[in-house]
Design a protein that fits this description.
alpha/beta; Rossmann fold; six-stranded parallel β-sheet; five-stranded parallel β-sheet; 18 strands; elongated; Transketolase_bac-like
């Protein structure tokens, strides 16, 4: 390593240490230890252009160990992505561009929000899947217009989390050779040496998953790191896993190799000692020599040249293959919401009872031709979730052009991969499992909400209607859990028209994940449903006279509420039935619209939903009541369970009468 490169690596370390010290908060250990591999990668092996961070064919870099965010911020500053020294000085401060963990959409150059360990690993696999699929669709001989790598850097914590094993198991099965993992192996965790809880041979595990494994014994050796990356790129059959043996807190005499380097500022004296030990020319905070900036500036020009070369290639491609260029524009554009709204075939339905999971399956197959960028599948449940796209092929290492994804029984990684797919660009992913197992997807759904990613979740078998499988498979609290999450639209349709509305919402969403909660059992088609479902709640069956009360229901219970309404009408009691497929969207409507659906002067209200009542208080008020689940379910036929737990017209009628009294 020549002196200028040494200085360039140490600039990452010094800026990281200074920013963390000024904030009096942060994680210096990873930036100090990983600076050489990050520099070598970004400087010599990664195609990226700071002048156009959104270049479609750039290599992707994800910092899975998001706590080491100052490593990434230092790189973005030095390479000229627009982060200033003032931004670094405001690390972890309110409103700054340098939050504690990297946030996609907030800081230019950050490819994914990371922090939950291992999440970046799963998202990197999704990005590599997207690259492989788009390459299979669009590349032509001599025109590799989709041709880039996905690099992800993480440490021992990322490798301990189960999500990484889930994701890498599939990555190996799929032979994603453009995926390269950099493992910052320093044998230290927060509580001490990793041997207190983590003694496995990680390389053997990755080998078993189907990865090429490479080891760099000295994490400060740029040449060795560079050769390892080139060996990784040369393997066209397997993803690669590069173990780089580092020392946490490298360069700080009092902290190097110790757990205390992980998650606390070094301290002023230790920052001073770090700079002295590294031979840094000044003790001044945030001071980087001009020649170091010039080096980074020259390196950045290589990325600009790479994009310029690609732009010329793409221009020639568009000229030779104009139909493919049109298709490319479709993939990289939002669906025409107005055209979809007016598409009669999309909204058409048969007037016969059907499970909303089956109706959703029909919607997916209607959308697949409207949206060729639709790309998705299930966690080994496609026949039950009804998520298979007919005649669209299966995505595999033998056919990356296939559109049906087989995630295997890996719900957590599946949700992370969906995030990676949509972050990559050019595709709209959907994922699926049983609703009760949304518990397994929730951390990555939360990241999708944070990143404003319109991923679609198809979650079927939505209630005690699951029946004989019993309480382990019957969701009770999951609706409340997902409704509690900001920026998620939880949509539980009652019939075909509402299911179409749910898919319209999902397909046209720009920055909100959509959760479609679907029934296993057949539901009747209802006369009053329609596109008003897109308002979140609406009057599905009006009271026959002066309104004595209001039923509010979702999904399979809307038909039950209408049945109860008819019985009450026979006794001279007039109630309105409101279908509320999506509380989240209803809350976004005007106060005037909300009042028109749920008039404030009608205080006799009963919510009917085969799930926990948490959240319904906002709509039924202190004077209302809920016919909901107060316990876990049981194992019996679904019809038996609905009677057992009070979901009958007679019981719902009795509850409304009590409320009216």
């Amino acid at each position: 390593m020549n002196n200028l490169e040494t200085m360039s690596v140490n600039a990452i370390r010094v800026l990281s240490a200074d920013a963390i010290q000024k904030a009096n908060s942060g994680h210096p250990g990873l930036p100090l230890g990983s600076a050489p591999m990050a520099y070598e990668l970004w400087a010599h092996h990664m195609n990226h252009n700071p002048k156009n961070p959104n270049w479609v064919n750039r290599d992707r870099f994800i910092l899975s160990g998001g706590h080491g965010s100052m490593l990434l911020y230092s790189l973005l500053h030095l390479f000229g992505y627009g982060l200033t020294l003032d931004d670094l000085k405001n690390f972890r401060q309110d409103g700054s561009l340098t939050p504690g963990h990297p946030e996609y959409g907030h800081t230019v150059g950050v490819e994914a929000t990371t922090g939950p360990l291992g999440a970046g690993m799963g998202m990197a696999v999704g990005m590599a899947m997207a690259e492989a699929h788009l390459a299979a669709i669009f590349n032509k001989p001599d025109f590799p217009i989709m041709d880039h790598y996905t690099f992800v850097l993480g440490g021992d914590g990322c490798m301990m989390e189960g999500i990484s094993s889930e994701a890498f198991s599939l990555a190996g099965t799929l032979g994603l050779s453009k995926l390269i993992v950099l493992y910052d192996s320093n044998n230290i965790s927060i509580e001490g040496g990793t041997d207190i809880a983590f003694t496995e041979n990680v390389q053997k595990r990755m080998e078993a998953f189907g990865f090429q494994t490479i080891t760099v014994e000295d994490g400060t050796d740029l040449d060795a790191i560079g050769k390892a990356i080139e060996v990784a790129k040369a393997d066209k059959k397997r993803p690669s896993f590069i173990t780089v043996k580092t020392q946490i807190g490298y360069g700080c005499p009092a902290k190097q190799g110790k757990a205390s380097a992980h998650g606390e500022p070094l301290g002023e004296d230790n920052v001073k000692a770090l700079k002295e030990n590294l031979g840094w020319p000044t003790q001044e905070s945030f001071a980087v020599p001009d020649e170091v900036y010039e080096n980074y500036k020259a390196l950045a020009k290589d990325g600009a040249a790479a994009e310029e070369k690609w732009n010329a290639l793409f221009e020639a491609y568009a000229e030779k293959y104009p139909d493919m260029k049109k298709q490319w524009d479709v993939y990289y554009s939002a669906v025409d919401a107005d055209a979809l709204m007016k598409n009669e075939e999309f909204w058409a339905y048969e007037d016969k009872a059907a499970a909303t999971r089956s109706l959703s399956g029909k919607m997916i197959n209607r959308l697949k031709d409207i949206m060729p960028q639709l790309f998705g599948g299930s966690a080994d449940l496609a026949p039950s979730n009804k998520t298979y796209m007919d005649n669209a092929g299966d995505f595999s290492k033998d056919n990356y052009a296939g559109r049906n994804l087989h995630f295997g029984v890996r719900e957590l990684a599946m949700a992370a991969m969906a995030n990676g797919i949509i972050l990559h660009g050019g595709l709209r992913p959907y994922v699926a499992t049983f609703f009760v197992f949304s518990d397994y997807t929730k951390p990555m759904l939360r990241l999708a909400a944070l990143m404003k990613l319109p991923v679609t979740y198809v979650l079927t078998h939505d209630s005690i209607g699951v029946g004989e499988d019993g309480p382990t498979h019957e969701p009770i609290e999951q609706l409340a859990m997902l409704r509690a999450m900001p920026n998620v639209n939880v949509f539980r349709p009652a019939d075909a028209k509402e299911t179409a509305a749910g898919w319209y919402l999902a397909a046209t969403s720009k920055e909100t994940p959509t959760v479609l909660v679907l029934s296993r059992q057949n539901l009747p088609q209802l006369a009053g449903t329609g596109k008003d479902a897109l308002k979140g709640a609406y009057v599905v069956s009006e009271a026959k006279g002066n309104m004595d009360g209001i039923f509010i229901a979702s999904g399979s219970e809307v038909a039950l509420a209408i049945e109860a309404q008819e019985k009450l009408a026979g006794e001279g009691i007039n109630v309105r039935v409101v279908s509320m497929p999506c509380m989240d969207i209803f809350r976004q409507q005007s106060k005037e619209y909300q009042e028109s659906v749920l008039p404030g002067n009608v205080r006799a209200r009963v919510a009917v939903e085969a799930a926990a009542d948490f959240g319904w208080g906002a709509y039924v008020g202190l004077d209302g009541a809920s016919v909901t689940m107060q316990s876990f379910g049981a194992s019996a036929p679904g019809g038996t369970l609905f009677k057992k737990f009070g979901f009958t017209a007679e019981h719902v009628v009795d509850v409304m009468k009590q409320v009216i009294k």
